[in-house]
Write a structure and sequence with these properties.
This protein is of the alpha/beta class. 41% of the residues lie in helices and 15% in strands. It is globular and about 70 Å long.
């Protein structure tokens, strides 16, 4: 296993990741933060949910990331008539062998692109649960391991809801991060017309990394150091979502694990062998927001999950290098509410 005991592993990671980043940004213009998050999720052994309006390049981002790596890629177009066996596979009786033979489904690839995932029925959506969490598929009592690396990149349109089935919380929680591409800037859109106007840039896109290289980089990311104070900071952030008054469902312990893994991958991409609180803060919104369920009152007040996460980041104390010296205890002032000015009393 590659660890950070060897400095070359960090150099290899940043070099390979830079090649993949340049390859993806050659197609997805003007969205460096989206490309970086995609690489972060890949190296953190997670799955990515791309949620945005039609025509902004959701499927293009997924296909570009897949083609930039020399590995097996399968694309699944989710439709209402898609069956779970189309994803996991099915056992077919072989007349010559007089036995059942397993035919693998589309999930047996290293990068699986699920286009418009919310257009399939809940029964079909549930076929992804075992593979996304345990990286295996069980059919007719037999368990089949999935290849490594394994990543599901799913897209969905949150605006046009006719004929769609919203993802259940159990499946949303299995996605490490959610990203919205957004509209490009006028300059990037003008450049897109020059690049995409005549031919598709995917036609000439060549792999810049191999699957075994990604496996080594994933092992290297696992060796990134996380201090105890940073671990506690991650736990405090996630725990605050479970008691926030604007949320009726907070983040799960799986979210804490995903936040820490993503922070380790982000630190490695930045050339660091250790995680900073800044890494957790930068990833808190894409990792946590899609798992949260606002209350009815928060929705009436137009409070989004992203705003709640930002509010939690402002309220949660950030760990420092050295613990501050505790001030001497001060007796609270008389009054029913500590910290509020009482009538007739002037505060200095």
């Amino acid at each position: 296993m590659t660890t950070y005991d060897d400095r070359a592993s960090l150099t290899d990671l940043t070099t390979t990741a830079e090649r993949v980043r340049r390859s993806v940004e050659g197609v997805i213009e003007g969205k460096p933060e989206v490309v970086r998050l995609s690489l972060t999720v890949l190296l953190a052994e997670g799955h990515l949910l791309i949620e945005d309006v039609p025509g902004v390049g959701k499927t293009m981002l997924a296909k570009t990331l897949a083609r930039s790596i020399d590995c097996s890629v399968r694309r699944i177009q989710f439709t209402p008539d898609l069956l779970p066996s189309d994803i996991t596979g099915v056992s077919i009786f072989d007349q010559q062998r007089r036995d059942f033979e397993f035919k693998p489904g589309a999930i047996f690839a290293q990068i699986v692109i699920g286009d418009e995932i919310n257009r399939a029925s809940p029964k079909t959506q549930s076929a992804l649960l075992e593979s996304m969490e345990e990286r295996q598929v069980t059919v007719d009592g037999h368990t089949y391991e999935l290849p490594s690396p394994f990543m599901v990149v799913a897209t969905q349109n949150p605006v046009e809801m006719e004929g769609t089935y919203p993802l259940p919380e159990a499946q949303r929680d299995r996605f490490m991060a959610r990203v919205s591409i957004g509209y490009p800037s006028p300059e990037a859109e003008l450049q897109m017309l020059d690049v995409h106007g005549s031919v598709s840039p995917l036609d000439d896109l060549q792999p810049v990394a191999h699957a075994h290289d990604i496996v080594k980089l994933i092992d290297a990311v696992r060796g990134v150091h996380v201090a105890d104070t940073v671990r506690r900071y991650a736990v405090d952030i996630v725990a605050a979502t479970r008691t926030h008054p604007d949320l009726r469902l907070g983040a799960s312990p799986r979210a804490t694990l995903h936040l820490l893994r993503a922070a380790k991958a982000s630190a490695a991409l930045s050339g660091r062998e250790y995680v900073l609180p800044d890494d957790l803060q930068a990833l808190a919104v894409p990792v946590l927001a899609h798992r949260l369920m606002p209350t009815a009152q928060a929705q009436l007040n137009r409070r989004t999950s992203e705003q709640v996460v930002l509010d939690i980041l402002q309220r949660t104390p950030v760990p420092t290098a050295a613990p501050p010296v505790a001030p001497p205890p001060v007796a609270p002032p008389a009054g029913p509410l500590y910290g509020q000015q009482q009538p007739g009393i002037r505060q200095l």
